[in-house]
Amino acid sequence: MKRNKPKYKQIIDAAVVVIAENGYHQAQVSKIAKQAGVADGTIYLYFENKEDILISVFRERMGYFVEKMKEVIAGKETAAEKLLVMIENHFNILSRDRNLAIVTQLELRQSNKELRMQINEVLKEYLHVVDDILRFGQAQDEFDKNMDIRLARQMIFGTIDETVTTWVINDQKYDLTALAPAVHKLLLNGCALR
Amino acid sequence: MKRNKPKYKQIIDAAVVVIAENGYHQAQVSKIAKQAGVADGTIYLYFENKEDILISVFRERMGYFVEKMKEVIAGKETAAEKLLVMIENHFNILSRDRNLAIVTQLELRQSNKELRMQINEVLKEYLHVVDDILRFGQAQDEFDKNMDIRLARQMIFGTIDETVTTWVINDQKYDLTALAPAVHKLLLNGCALR
Amino acid sequence: MKRNKPKYKQIIDAAVVVIAENGYHQAQVSKIAKQAGVADGTIYLYFENKEDILISVFRERMGYFVEKMKEVIAGKETAAEKLLVMIENHFNILSRDRNLAIVTQLELRQSNKELRMQINEVLKEYLHVVDDILRFGQAQDEFDKNMDIRLARQMIFGTIDETVTTWVINDQKYDLTALAPAVHKLLLNGCALR
Amino acid sequence: MKRNKPKYKQIIDAAVVVIAENGYHQAQVSKIAKQAGVADGTIYLYFENKEDILISVFRERMGYFVEKMKEVIAGKETAAEKLLVMIENHFNILSRDRNLAIVTQLELRQSNKELRMQINEVLKEYLHVVDDILRFGQAQDEFDKNMDIRLARQMIFGTIDETVTTWVINDQKYDLTALAPAVHKLLLNGCALR
DNA sequence: CATGAATGAGATTTCATTCAT
DNA sequence: GATGAATGAAATCTCATTCAT
């Protein structure tokens, strides 16, 4: 069950490809094994069960996601700038790994409640990053101090997520990253005229 | 296959209860039949197949949803007011039918891609309502005319959806409807200080 | 259960049409009822069960078959002539009622062993007709007296049956009746040169 | 899906036994699996689906049939002798494998049209053997050159088939092979006195 | 460490038949 | 006599997981 052996990554990568190409319900363990170039039984030397593969896909990739986010955010001075690079990076990473986009936005959502709960656990880390930006913005007098942090986080995450999902459903046929500034503006200022 | 016979509604209602209580993947046709108080075979006098039951759950309830929305929205003068009653009603309807909330926010999303496509078809009607409010707001000089309608709609729907889902995941333990004004304010003004 | 009421015949006729058009396994009772223009339940006022419909189809039509045979055979003097008109009539009747041909040669043979046993019971009458011709031929010194009647009957029936079945399988695209003289000659003289 | 692994034959053999003992419609996959001493799922490692098992039963056994025929026929000089050994062997093989006789003469004929079409495809090979004998006989001036090959083949096959079926229906209670010379004589010379 | 053949539980759907009206 | 809505039993096939090699 060593997570640093090469076959571990191999299987995770294979799972992303297989799920993206076949859909969640057609991603059988034997297909993942074949794509990874290992025997079916070998999967179980590295993962507890099928659910463990899926949650691991999310954890590994989302871990990279959050690390990346923290890095680029730290490099910015204002909350507005931090929010912008976060959105840009979110869009950018998924634009570049289109299979991952399909898997996280469409396929993995078909998993059962229990798996989704675990995925939410992983997501929390990402939500903390959003919260940090929001609190930082309030402290810097950039953001409204009366604003409910939890609701604002739901707005930010919900908007980003819905935007990416719509892009995936439309077969990724437009430039997602290009939408970042407009989304950023909307999240900062809302719909109303100023 | 008549949709106005009492058993049709009876089965739809049973499906909502069974899915909410057992989860999507444990909602066997025989469980739904038992809950509805009919024989398994009777289900197939009213629905083509299992998928048809699930689609119908969504269509029937969402149909009511959209009708209700259009009604309350028409009664308001400004875009801001229209948006507020839309959010209030969305939250309110799901607050009152907690099983439906579980089914739409968590369970039905586990369905396969094809079923989700059909659900999206039903959802489009709701998204049109949002679009109408946004365009109305622009025409009335309440909303920013440079705003991308599609992105704004994604923000509004994404925020509402994420808020409801979070509430469901947290076992519906707080008052969802009470959040409507704060969500409304966020959507109108964003996070930034004015 | 009166067999002389008009609906009895109506249902038999409907059964032939439905089986010919849909095949044995797709000939549901409800389809037959619809074709006959009666309610499903009405079927059971005239027939014990589905099997009874099928066996009745065979009995009614084959009854006519045998009557016809006896009639035309009685009008001929020699065994050879009797055999010829029997073959001609067999081919002719099925040529004219192509649905019946499909039903007797292909579809009804898919029925279960029990039903086929009953059909064989009905067929026996027809086989007796053949036996009568054979014995008459032997008495008249037209046919070989050492010949095993049972085997000869199997040859005659088997040949006729196989010929009709082949014609049905080939979509009845050639003139079956035209084959009667050649089949007759073969049955009388065999393959060997004289 | 390897056809040379021992379990492949094992399942075919089990299918013959189960179908013969229970009838076509009562030959569930689970019964066949049990008879073969494997798990239900194992069946599907060797066969596409249930129909594939049935086709394979026919193909495997009929393949042996045709091979055997060609062999014994090649060893004879005259068309008459060839025909005789063909009939003898046909009767003999089915006499020795009585379950197979039940399956081919009664049970497999209950299959749906599609399966029967496939079975006919396999049968064609056998019919070619008959045709070859007939043409050989004509070339050797043993058989009537004016004879329609197709009709003669239908007579031969129809007679043999009907003879075997009658024997099976009568519970195989007489010696089928003993009938071969008489059947042979009938096919060569017909019913008529010479 | 790695393999892959074997396992076996579990669910949708059809359709002959009934019976209250 | 006639209706037709309701019944409910029954069977194929999939696929995650194991374990002998």
Automatic annotation (TrEMBL), chains A, B, C, D:
Organism for this UniProt entry: Lederbergia wuyishanensis
PROSITE patterns for this protein: HTH_TETR_2 (PS50977)
Regions recorded as binding DNA: 28-47
Residues annotated as domain HTH tetR-type: 5-65
Protein name: TetR/AcrR family fatty acid metabolism transcriptional regulator
Keywords: DNA-binding, Repressor
Top-level taxonomic group: Bacteria
InterPro entries in the cross-refs: Homeodomain-like_sf, HTH-type_Tx_Regulator, HTH_TetR, Tet_transcr_reg_TetR-rel_C_sf, Tscrpt_reg_YsiA_C
Lineage: Bacteria, Bacillati, Bacillota, Bacilli, Bacillales
